[in-house]
Amino acid sequence: MKKLLASAALAAGLYTFAGSAQADCGSVSVAEMNWASAGIAAHVDKIVLENGYGCTVALVAGDTMPTFLSMNQKGQPDVAPEFWVNSVRTLLDRAVSAGRLIVGAEILADGAIEGWWIPKFVADAHRDIKTVQQALARPELFPAPDNPSKGAIYNCPTGWSCQVSTANLYRALGAEEKNFELVDTGTAAGLDGSIAGAFERKIGWLGYYWAPTAILGKYEMVKLSFDVPHDRADWDACTAVPGCPNPKVNSYPTSQAFTLVTREFAEKAEVAMDYIKKRKWTNTTVNKILAWQTENKGTNEDAARHFLKTMPDIWTPWVAPDVAEKIKASL
User: Is 178 helix (H, G, I), strand (E, B) or coil?
Assistant: First the structure.
């Protein structure tokens, strides 16, 4: 990441802004990725760039690799609001060093988070439980649905990569010997339903989940520590490998998502780059927006407008005061 940021700084030195950049932002294409948090971010950018900076914005369908390759090779789209860098870090470093792409803010300020969680009401009632190992010492707090005499650890949906890591960590932790069983949730709906049911009945729940997500915006959960640092080499060699014969306790990695823009956008929209470099939000914020979207069956645009209308304390520092007033007037 140091190399990526250093390359971004180098690329920033390549900007040659025209004097008319602030007055003429021009036409801008923004990738609307096919997952909710990124889709909402794209609509936030559209509203801000159009109403705050006078751009004409077109949203285009996006996904991680196709969008990166298109931006790198063709200079289109101009903006990828939420781009996950882990899968293309080396290629991205090269593109930034060459000045083709510019790295903006780390839009998810605390990264995407995976791990094992418990309800906040359980954490509040049992403040000694901070780690997975401490939770495993209390199986009675997390009763299995079909056998309350045992504790339960809820696994990922069938076929997801997290199903493998959770199963390996279950073995590494000796959870079966600690009177826990691994519960197969089957589908994403099954996993979500197990959390909703635990909150409705006010009973303990322990298992895998991730953020940002609507579920963690609706239900307050606390992520437990595995009490060890993330070991990437062992993760790749064993934790993420089905049936690894000797798994060790490991922590989940934190993934990073940045905003990427093309050099052309940076040159024609100088003043908007200030916004691109500042615009970031936390998982807590995104979780709340996703929960509102789910509960209200809203579109990505609906959710973006809800965010801008109800959370000005978060987004107004991203822009100058006069720009903020223009955006507020458009909502």
Answer: coil
Distance, CA of 260 to CA of 8 (rounded, Å): 10
User: Count of CB atoms within 10 A of residue 6's CB?
Assistant: 13
- Please tell me the distance from the alpha carbon of residue 59 to that of residue 209, in angstroms, as a whole number: 30
Indicate the DSSP class of residue 245: S
Characterize the bridge pairing of strands 151-154 and 180-183: parallel
Token duo for residue 91? 């290629």
How far is the C-alpha of 209 from the C-alpha of 225, rounded, in Å?
13
Q: For residue range 144-191, what is the model confidence (pLDDT) as tens digits?
A: 999 999 999 999 988 888 999 999 999 999 999 999 999 999 999 999
Residue 201 CB coordination number (10 Å): 9
Please, are residues 289 and 92 in contact by the beta-carbon 8 Å criterion?
Answer: no
Q: What pLDDT, in 10s, does the model give residues 190-217?
A: 999 999 999 999 999 999 999 999 999 9
In whole angstroms, what is the distance from residue 33 CA to residue 231 CA? 30
Q: What is the DSSP letter of 139?
A: G
Q: Would you say 210 and 112 are in contact if contact means Cβ atoms under 8 Å apart?
A: yes
DSSP 19: T
**Exposure b/e, 255-288, CB count within 10 A at least 16 = b:** ebbbbbbbbebbbbbbbbbebbbebbbebebbbb
Tell me if residue 302 falls in helix, strand or coil: helix
Q: Which two tokens stand for residue 109?
A: 């300020």
SS3 category, 309: helix
Write down the pLDDT at residue 4. 55
Backbone dihedral angles phi then psi of residue 113, each to the nearest 5 degrees: -115, 130
Q: pLDDT for 63-119, tens place per residue?
A: 888 999 999 999 999 999 999 887 688 899 999 999 999 999 999 999 989 999 999
